[in-house]
TrEMBL record:
InterPro entries xrefs: Acyl_CoA_acyltransferase, GNAT_dom, NAT_camello-type
Keyword terms, alphabetized: Transferase
GO molecular function: N-acetyltransferase activity
Species annotation: Actinospica durhamensis
Protein name per Swiss-Prot or TrEMBL: GNAT family N-acetyltransferase
Domain N-acetyltransferase intervals: 23-181
Length: 182
C-alpha cells in the first residue's frame, strides 16, 4: 500500500481501553493489518449482532480483493485506514473508487474505543480523502442494526436512499444504502 500516515484521534483524554495511550489512525500498510481487520469483523459482528461466519467470509473476500487490486493497480483503487491502540488493531475504514464515486466500506470500531470520537475521526479521514480524490459523491451500504454508524453517516452528510429486507449473515435485517453528493 502506501507509506504510513499517522493521526492522533483524541484530545489527550485517556480511553476506556487503558494504558493511557491514544489511538492512532494510520494507513493499513503493515503485515497483518488486513487479517486483523477481517478477524475484528468476525468477532465484533458475532458478539454484538449474532452474525455467523459468513459475515467474516464476506468481509475477508472483499478486503482481499481490494488489497490485490491495490497492489496491482496502485493507489487509485482507494485506501484503508486502521485504528491502532496499545499495539492492537481496533478499528478500520476504507474508501474505494467504484463507478466514478467513492464507496465507504468496512467501518468498524471495537467497543472499548467507542464514545471518544474515534469513529467520527475515521469517517472524517475517509471523507477528506474522497474530497481530495475529487469524487462527485460517496455511497455506502450497511444494515439496520448499526445505529451508531448510521448516526455517524448522517452527521457527515449522508442521506438514506434505499432500504430493503434481507436475510444474510445468519440474521434477518434491512440492507440500507446511504448517499452523499459533494
Amino acid at each position: 500500500m502506501t507509506e504510513t500516515v499517522e493521526q492522533d484521534v483524541t484530545t489527550g483524554t485517556a480511553t476506556a481501553a487503558g494504558e493511557g495511550e491514544r489511538p492512532v489512525i494510520r494507513l493499513a500498510t503493515e503485515p497483518g493489518d488486513l487479517g486483523d481487520v477481517i478477524a475484528l469483523h468476525g468477532r465484533l459482528y458475532w458478539s454484538e449482532y449474532a452474525m455467523d461466519q459468513s459475515m467474516e467470509i464476506y468481509c475477508g473476500e472483499g478486503i482481499m480483493r481490494f488489497a490485490r487490486e491495490r497492489f496491482e493497480r496502485g493507489p487509485e483503487v482507494g485506501e484503508m485506514w486502521v485504528v491502532e491502540h496499545a499495539g492492537r488493531i481496533l478499528g478500520a475504514i476504507t474508501m474505494l473508487e467504484e463507478d466514478g464515486l467513492g464507496r465507504l466500506r468496512w467501518l468498524l470500531l471495537d467497543a472499548a474505543l467507542r464514545g471518544f470520537g474515534v469513529g467520527r475521526a475515521l469517517v472524517r479521514t475517509a471523507m477528506d480523502y474522497a474530497r481530495e480524490r475529487g469524487f462527485p459523491g460517496v455511497f455506502l451500504t450497511t444494515i439496520a442494526p448499526l445505529h451508531t454508524a448510521h448516526a455517524l453517516y448522517r452527521e457527515a452528510g449522508f442521506e438514506l436512499t434505499s432500504s430493503e429486507p434481507v436475510r444474510q449473515w445468519g440474521i434477518e435485517t434491512d440492507e440500507m444504502r446511504f448517499d452523499m453528493k459533494f
